[in-house]
Amino acid sequence: MYLLIAMSDPSASMISKIATKNFCSDYLLGEGGFGCVFKGWIDQNTFAPTKPGSGIVVAIKRLKAESFQGHKEWLTEVIYLGQLRHENLVKLIGYCSESDNRLLVYEFMPKGSLENHLFRKGVQPISWPTRVKIAIDVARGLSFLHGLDANVIYRDLKASNVLLDSNFNAKLSDFGLARDGPTGDNTHVSTRIVGTRGYAAPEYVATGHLTPKSDVYSFGVVLLELLSGRRALDEDRGGLAEQTLVEWADPFLRDSRRVLRIMDTRLGGQYSKKEAQAVAAVVLQCLHMDPKNRPSMVDVLTSLEQLHTSKDMPRTPPPAKLHHHHHHHNHHQGIKHTNPPRKTSITNSK
After folding, report:
1. Do both 191 and 241 map to the same domain?
2. DSSP assignment, residue 338?
3. pLDDT in tens, 203-229
4. Where is this region: Disordered (predicted)?
5. In angstroms, what is the C-alpha Rg of the chain?
6. CB atoms within 10 A of CB 172
C-alpha cells in the first residue's frame, strides 16, 4: 500500500492508499527507461483508490529505483513540478514515496501519445487543422516553461512525450528530465546526454550545452513529423548510419515549390498549401544549426497562431485532381511524394 500525497494541497496532506493490486499488467499503459506507467482510478475528493471504472482515471508512473537521485532532490523536483500548472502540461496530481517505491500520479490522457496517432498503423490519421492545433498547444507549453516564471528547459521533446486528451488537446508529459534554465550566459553542461537521437539539437549532442534553443530544435523535428507523417528516426529501416528525418527533409524544406512533396500522404491532399509552406518555413528556422539563429518558442508560437487565425486560405483539392492545376514548367504530375529515406540511397526525389 502507498500513501498518496496530493499536489493540490500538500499542507492538508490528503493522504490515502493506492493498492498495489493496481499494478497488474491489465492496466499497463507503457514502459520506458524510467519505469512503467499504469492506469488507475481514484476518488475525486478523497484520492482514495476506487474500483476500476469509477472515480477519476489517473496514470500512475512507477519509477525504477535507479532512475532518480537522492530522496531529497527527488522530492524537491516533484514539489516544483507540481507547482507548474498550465493547460498544455500534463497535470501532476500527487506522488507516493515509500522506501524504494516512488510513484507519480498524473491526469490520464485518453487519446495517448502523438506518436501513436502519427505512426501507428490502423489509427485514424489526424486532420491538418488538428495537426496545426497540436503544434500550437506544444508551443504554448514550451513557451510557458521557458518563460521567466518557470524557467525550465524541457530537454527531451519528442512525439511520444506529447499526450492528447479526448478532444485532441496536446499536453507535454514526462517532466523528469526538465531542469531550471540558464541564468545570463551560462548554459547547462550535462555529462549525460539525455535527449533522443533524431530529436536532440546538434550542439547539445556535441557538447552537452543545454539552452532553451535546444528545445526549439526538437520542436522543429516534431513539427516536421506532423508535416510528413514520418518518424524522426526510423529504427526499422536500418542501423546507426540511417539518415535522420531532418537530413532527408532539408533540401525539400529549402524550396517552397518542393516542400509539398514531403507532406504526409495520409492527409490525402486535404490541407492548405500556404499553411503547409508557412509551417515548413517555421521548421527550417527551428532546425538552424546555430542555436542563436533559432527563434524563441514565443516567436514560434506567434507564427503558428497567425496561421490559425487566417481562415481564408484556400484548401488544396484532393490529389486526384491536382494535375489540372499544374500546367507550368514543372512536369511532375501534381505533388510528388518522395519515398522515405533508405539506407541505400541518399537522394530520394525520384
Report:
1. yes
2. P
3. 998 988 889 999 999 999 999 999 999
4. 310-350
5. 22
6. 22
| Residue of 129, 119, 154, 149 whose CA lies nearest to 139 | 154
Question: pTM surpassing 0.85?
Answer: no
What CA–CA distance (Å, rounded) separates 343 from 240? 10
Residue identified by cell 506518436 is 115
Residue 131: name the closest of 153, 108, 162, 173 by CA. 162
By CB atoms closer than 10 A (0-12, 13-18, 19+), residue 296 is middle
Q: Is 100 a catalytic residue?
A: no
CATH number, residue 91: 3.30.200.20
Q: Which residue has the cell 546555430?
A: 290
Say whether both 95 and 129 belong to one domain. no
pLDDT of 165 over the 60 cut: yes
346 in a domain, yes or no? no
pLDDT band at 231 (very low <50, low <70, confident <90, very high): very high
Could you tell me if 158 and 219 are in contact, meaning their C-beta atoms sit under 8 angstroms apart? no
Please tell me whether 61 is known to bind a ligand: yes
Task: Determine the residue type at 248.
Answer: W
Query: Out of 156, 215, 236, 264, which one is annotated catalytic?
Result: 156
pLDDT of residue 43: 80
Q: Which single residue is written with the C-alpha cell 526510423?
A: 234
What are 137's three cell numbers?
498547444
Using an 8 Å Cβ cutoff, are 198 and 156 in contact?
Answer: no
pLDDT digits over 44-69, tens only? 777 777 777 778 888 887 777 665 55
Confidence of residue 310 (pLDDT cuts 50, 70, 90): low
Predicted pLDDT of residue 34: 64
Alpha helices in the chain (DSSP H): 71-83, 114-119, 128-146, 202-207, 212-228, 245-253, 273-286, 297-309
Q: Which of 107, 141, 167 is the last residue of a domain?
A: 107
Q: What is the pLDDT of residue 139?
A: 98
> How many C-beta atoms lie closer than 10 Å to residue 210's C-beta?
24
Please state the rounded mean pLDDT for residues 271-298.
97
Shared domain for 222 and 123, answered yes or no, is: yes
DSSP summary character for residue 336:
P
